[in-house]
Amino acid sequence: MKRIVTAFTVAASLWAGAAAAQDKPTFYLLSHGGPSDAFWIDWNRGATDACTQLAVTCNISFSGGDMAAQKEAFNSAIAAKPQGIATTSAQPGLWTEEVAAARAAGIPVVFFNTDDTSTGRQGYVGADLRSAGVQWAQYLVDNKMVKAGDTVFMPVEVPGASYQVLETEGIASVFDPLGVKYDVVEAGTDPAGIIAKMTDYMVANKPVAMIGLGDSVMSSVKQVFDGAGLSAGAIPVVGWGNSKTTAEAVRDGYVNAAAWQFPSAQGFMPVALLKLAAAGEPIGYNIETFSLYDKASVDPILKLYEAE
Amino acid sequence: MSDTPKPGLAALIKVPQYASLVLLVIVLGTFAALNGDFLSPLNVSNMLAFLPELGIIALGMTLLLTAGEFDLSVGATFGLVPVVVMLLVQNAGVDLGLALVIGLAICVLIGLINGLIVTKIGISSFLVTLSMLMIIRGAALYITQGFPLASWDQPGIFVTLLAGDFYIGPFRVYASIFWFAVLSGLAGYLLNRAKIGNWISAIGSNRNAAVARGVPADKVKVWLFVLTSVLAGLAGMISAFRISTASPVAGTGYELEVIAMVVVGGTALNGGRGTILGTVVGALMLRGIRNGIVLIGVPGLAYNIFVGAVILGMLMLHAALQNSGRKG
Q: At CB < 8 Å, which residues of chain B contact A?
C-alpha cells in the first residue's frame, strides 16, 4: 500500500510539474535595437532577469533597426499564440494592424522604450518624450540658467522626426510663457558633420544654453566645446544621456544634466506587466522610466558602461 | 616694349580655376565683412579641421569626372572602412596597421568592382555606383547592427600620422591638412604634367578618339575608380581618428557634396576638363559657405535654403564669368 501511495505521489508530482511547465506563460519581446548596443545589453539583462524571477518563458529578438524584420517577428509571435507580446515602436503607425490582430486573438500587448498610443496597446514602459522636453527646459529655468530674451541652442539629428517634435513641444510649454527663445538646428547624422555644424553654431551665436534633442548630438558636446574654445561648464547643457561618451561628459562637467531611461527596468517591467495580464489582472497604465542624472549621480551609469 | 597685352582679370577668368579663385575671394570677403569672427583663428582652425576629409575624396572625384565617370559610393566607402577596421581591431584583436591595410584592400576591391562593371559590362557609372552605395551602406549597417563603434582613441603612430594636431601660433592644425596638400600636389601633377593626365582628359572628351590613338581607356578608368575608393577610405579613417568615432552612417551625403566641390571648382560635369587647383578652391568655398552661413546668423532650420541658394548663385556667377571671358 505504501508503495502504491509513493508511486501515486511521485506520479502526481511529475504530472503537476509537467502541467506547471505547460502552464508557464510564454512572452515575445521584440526590440528594434541591436544586441551589441550598451543600452540594449542592459535592457536584455533586465528582461532575462524578469523572465527567470517570474518563471515565464521569454523569446527575445532584436531587429537592429530593421522595421520589416521586426514586423515579421511580431506576426510570427501572433501566430505562435503566446500569453503576451512586448515591443518597441520606433515608427508611428507601424503596429496599427498587428496590435489589433493580437488583441483580437486575446494576446495582451505592452510597448516599451518608444510608444504609439494610437495602436490601442495596453501599457507602456519608458520615457514620455514630451515630458523629457519639459524636464530639460524646467532644469534650465529652475537653476536660473536662462531668462527672458535668451536663445537656447537645440541641435537635433533629424528635424521633424517624432522625437524632436514631442521634445520641442515639451520645451515650448515651459519656455514660451517665459519669453525664452530656442533655435532648433539640423546637425545631421554624420558624426563629423554633427561636430562641425554644432561648433560653427557655437562660435557664431555664443548661445547661453544648449538642449541636445538626441543622443548623437549630446555625445559630441565635449568635442564641440573644444572646437569652439569653451571650457567645461562654460554654458549649461542638458539633453539625452544614453551613451558612455555623454556620461563621461557629465562627469567632466561639460554636460550639466542628462536623461537616463533605465534600460534594465525597461526590460524588466514589460515582463512583469505581461505576467499580471496573463494572470487576468488589468494593465491599462504606463510606467515611466526616466530621470535626469548629473555629476553627483553619474557613477552607477559609468560603472554600467565600464562593465561592458 | 612688348606688344603682348598683360593678362588682366578678364583673361584670368577665362580659366575655370581662376574664376573659382575670384569667387572664393568674394565669398570669404563677404562673410568676413558680415562677421568679424569668420577669419578668427578659432573659426579658421575649425574650417580646416573638416576640410581635408571632404577634400581628399574630391581629388579622386576630380580625376574620375574628368574621365567622364561618377562615383556615388564614396560617402558609403568613407563610412564602411573605419567600421571594418575598428571591428577587426576591437573584436578580432587584429593589429591596427594590418587592419588599416585590410580596410584599404576593401577599397581597392570596391573600386575594382565599380570599374570593371562600368567598363566591361557597359553600365552607366551613375547606376553602378548608386547600387554600390546601397550595398556598402547596407553592409556597414548590418555588421554594426546600426550602432556606432568606439573608435581608436589611444595615441599611436597611425593616429598621429593621420589625425594628429598641433598649434601654429593661434591656429590648431591637423595632420590631415598636410595629407590633403600632398595628395593635391600629386593629383595636380598627374593631371597636368604626366602622360596619364592627357589620357584622362582625352578619355573624358572623346573616348573613341582616345582609344583610336592607343589610350587604354578602360584600364585607366578602372584604376581611377580604385584610386577614388582608396581616397574615400583614407578620408574615412582620418575622420574616425579625428573624432574618435566609427559610425556606419558616417559620410552620408558626401558624394553630392564632393561633386558640388569639384564642379564649383571648374571641372566639367560631363568630362574632358578637370582642375585640381579648382577642386581645392571648390572645397574651400563649400566649407566656407557652410561655415559662413552659420556665422551670419541664419535661422537653424533655414541653413539648407541659404547653402543651396549660395551654391547655385556661385555656379551661375561662375558660368557668367566664363561666358564673358570667352566673348571678350
A: 35, 37, 40, 42-43, 45-46, 49-50, 53, 141-142, 144-148, 150, 239, 242-245, 247, 249-254, 290-291, 294-297, 299-301, 303-304
- List of residues 6+ apart from B220 with CB closer than 8 A: B67, B196, B199, B200, B203
The chain B residue lying nearest A245, using CA atoms, is B150
| CB contact A159 to B (< 8 Å) | yes
- Residues A121, A93 within the same domain: yes
Q: pLDDT per position in chain A (308 positions), as tens? A: 444 444 444 444 444 444 444 578 999 999 887 665 667 777 888 999 999 999 999 998 887 666 777 888 898 889 888 999 999 987 777 888 899 999 999 999 999 988 888 899 999 999 988 999 999 999 999 999 999 999 999 999 878 777 788 899 999 999 999 999 999 998 887 889 899 999 999 998 999 999 999 888 998 999 999 999 999 999 999 999 988 889 999 999 999 999 998 888 999 999 999 999 999 999 989 999 998 999 999 998 888 777 66
Residues of A whose CB is below 8 A from B253: 188, 190
- Give the separation between CA A63 and CA B145, rounded to whole angstroms: 8
Are A59 and A162 contained in the same domain?
no
Which one of B87, B162, B239, B245 would you mutate to disrupt binding with A, by most A Cβ within 10 Å of its Cβ? Answer: B245
The boundaries of the domain holding residue A95 are 25-127+262-290
Q: Does A228 lie in the same domain as A84?
A: no
A156 contacts A217 by C-beta, under 8 angstroms: yes
A193-247 pLDDT tens trace: 899 999 999 998 999 999 999 888 998 999 999 999 999 999 999 999 988 889 9
Of B189, B227, B183, which is closest to residue B52 (Cα–Cα)? B183
Relative to beta strand A291-293, strand A257-260 is antiparallel
**How close A222 gets to chain B, by Cα (Å)?**
11
Q: Is residue A10 part of a domain?
A: no
CA distance B203 to B313: 30
Residue range(s) defining the domain that contains residue B35: 11-327
Burial of B240 (0-12, 13-18, 19+ CB in 10 A): buried
Q: Which of A34, A203, A227 sits opposite B37 (nearest CB)?
A: A203
Report yes or no on B4 lying in a domain. no
CATH of the domain at A241: 3.40.50.2300
Which of A:231-260 have CB within 8 Å of B? 244
CA distance A253 to A247: 10
Q: Name residues 14-43 of chain A within 8 A of B (Cβ).
A: 33-37
Question: Looking at the 3D structure of chain A, how many domains does it have?
Answer: 2
Counting the structural domains of chain B, the total is 1
Put simply, the answer to whether A37 touches B145 (Cβ < 8 Å) is yes
Q: Which residue in the block uniquely carries the three cell numbers 506563460?
A: A25
d(CA A83, CA A210): 45
Q: Is A65 on the interface with B (CB under 8 A)?
A: yes
Tell me whether residues A190 and B252 touch, CB distance under 8 A. Answer: yes
Contacts of A203 in chain B (CB under 8 A): 37, 40, 42-43, 46, 295
Tell me whether residue B2 is in a domain: no
Same domain, A52 and A95: yes
Q: Position of cell 598621429?
A: B160
In a domain, A3, yes or no: no
Domain-embedded: residue A145: yes
Residues A118, A46 share a domain: yes
Judge whether B104 lies within some domain: yes
Would you say residue B259 lies in a domain? yes
**ipTM confidence score:** 0.70
Whichever domain contains B28, its CATH number is 1.10.3470
Residues A39 and A106 in one domain: yes
The answer to whether position A196 is within a domain reads yes
